[in-house]
Amino acid sequence: MVTSKYEFPAHLFVLWDMMMRYVAVTWWTLWTRMKLFALRCPVGRGLQVDGPLVIQMAQRGSVVLADHVTINSRFGSNLVGLTGASILHCIREGRIEIGPHSGGSSVVLSARTLIRIGAYVKIGGNVRIYDHDFHSQDHLARRTYRADQLAVKAAPVIIDDDVFIGANAIVLKGVHIGARSVIGAGAVVALKDIPPDSVVVGNPARIINISVRNRA
């Protein structure tokens, strides 16, 4: 039993946390499923949502979740130090696709074109993935909302299978992360093409290792 490794009375608090998690996951998973159903978004089996997931889209069907996706969106759902709710944000024709057995904690995914996440991808606490700049690089365009939004640059973000993205990393527009790669905590990733089996760290991010498998 999970609580057997705790001494009295610590196991009572552990039991309380387990009960609260069960209640939160049951309620928020049901609520999320109902919301995604109303928005015509396909959802696979085994979805698990712990906490109030924020979903915003301009067009129905803009979010696609495969089987066994897990999203933590409550402070106590992951003790890595979460700073807020998870957010799925689709602007205009933006689309978010999350593959099977993938998930994250307090993540923000914001898409104007496409954010595609493969299978078995682990996204650490407070990771942000943006396929656009939010604002124009032209200072004159930024003076008015409409001109600013029309001049925003965007490019798809593709994350292949089995990638791990460490806590507080930021992945920017146009990035393609190859399979099995590791993105270090706090990295700011603007590299456009990261080969499979890479290790990426830093701000700005750089590749510090590519596995023997990839070099062969």
Could you explain the architecture of this structure?
The protein has three helices and 20 strands. The protein is an alpha/beta fold and 216 residues long. The strands form three sheets. It has an eight-stranded mixed beta sheet. It has a single domain (2-215), classed as Hexapeptide repeat proteins (UDP N-Acetylglucosamine Acyltransferase, domain 1). The longest helix is centred in the first third of the chain and has 29 residues, at 10-38. A hairpin with a 4-residue loop joins strand 19 and strand 20. The mean pLDDT is 91.
Can you give me a brief rundown of this structure?
The protein is α/β, with parallel strands linked by helices.
Outline the fold blueprint.
Blueprint: H1 10-38, E1 48-50, E2 54-57, E3 63-65, E4 70-72, E5 87-90, E6 95-98, E7 103-105, E8 108-111, E9 114-117, E10 122-123, E11 128-130, H2 145-150, E12 157-159, E13 164-165, E14 170-171, E15 176-177, E16 182-183, E17 188-189, E18 193-194, E19 198-201, E20 206-210, H3 212-215
Parallel strand pairs: 1-4, 2-5, 3-6, 4-7, 5-8, 6-9, 7-10, 8-11, 9-12, 10-13, 11-14, 12-15, 13-16, 14-17, 15-18, 16-19
Antiparallel strand pairs: 19-20
